[in-house]
Amino acid sequence: MKFEPERILSPASLDALVRAHDGDCALLALWMAHTSFCDPERAAGDLCMTRSQVDAAMEKLGRILSSVHEGYFPSVQTVQEDTGKRPGAADDSAAPVKVILPAQELPEYTAEEICSFSEKDDAFRAVLDCARLVIGRDLNTRELGRLLGMYHHLGLPADVLFVLLHYCEAISRGPQGAPRAPTVAFIEKQAYQWVNQGITSVEAAEDYAERQRMLHDGEGRIRRVLEIYDRNLTASERSYIDSWLTMGFDEDCIALAYERTLDNIGKRQFPYIGKILQRWHEAGIHTVKDVREKEPSRKDGNGAVSGKRLAAGKRQKPDFEPTPFD
């Protein structure tokens, strides 16, 4: 596949390559500029590199060039392993493989470089001011360098970074689940996730942040429903809760499923709660009212649903056999 040597060797590209501190990446860029081709097998032979080295360098070079030349993504213009065809060739329908960006690949910047960049770029200086407010303290050189890497190396616009910083502030939690200021490492991890998901515009960032805030708010309510007060949720537990909220269950219905779980097996077990909710979902049941209408045998003598232990403050054993919805 042909490339444009003037883009690879442009001053902006060369500056980004130098800052990346990656010899394989720089060597591959020179080879591509010289040959005007991107053929991993040929590159491996000409440069005395392994195919894995070439692939890794090509992916990183693509990210570097896309950060300085919008819409330029050579990292996905590689030979497809399964067909042997390159994108753009006949019968090419394979989507590029999603690239997970390792955080350690952000270049290191000196204090002088950071100072010089912030003096010349008002937008980046505003990002640093916002970060100090969100984190609640002055940042050290390494932390400032990570923010510069998100802005300059990953190519996230300042407006997107503003949204990212406030989003991280909203969702960051301590060991006991209490809100706390986000760390730069946490912000960097989220930045990589956004880049991988293509969240690089203000509109996409705001939409994603709002949807995620709603899920996190829901998680907080469900934590209380499930009586989890002294620790953070595990990744698996968070996945369960997010799926329940996505299916349309409110906290009362999840509380009822939790009650049924305690009644049936005597302990909190996310897979068991999930099975109850999944069956309800498949049956079109998403509210306590739906449960009452579909499960009349579940009402006690006063017409109250058994799952109201949380409101009453004590659990009552049911005097009935589990229905198919359990």
Explained architecture:
This protein is mainly alpha-helical and 326 residues long. The chain has three domains: 5-78; 111-221; 234-312, no CATH class. 59% of the residues lie in helices and 0% in strands. The chain has helices at 5-8, 11-20, 23-35, 40-47, 51-68, 111-120, 122-135, 141-153, 158-171, 184-196, 202-225, 235-247, 251-265, 270-282, 288-294, 309-312. The termini are far apart.
What's the layout of helices and strands?
Elements: H1 5-8, H2 11-20, H3 23-35, H4 40-47, H5 51-68, H6 111-120, H7 122-135, H8 141-153, H9 158-171, H10 184-196, H11 202-225, H12 235-247, H13 251-265, H14 270-282, H15 288-294, H16 309-312
Helix pairs in contact: 2-5, 3-5, 4-5, 6-7, 7-9, 8-10, 9-10, 9-11, 11-12, 11-13, 12-14, 13-14
| Mean pLDDT across residues | 75
Number of strands: 0
Number of helices: 16
Sheet/helix structural class: mainly alpha
Give the distance, in angstroms, between the N- and C-terminal Cα atoms: 58 Å
Main beta-sheet strand count, sense and barrel state? none
Range of strand content: under 5%
Count of spatially separate domains: 3
Share in helix: 55-70%
Radius of gyration: 26 Å
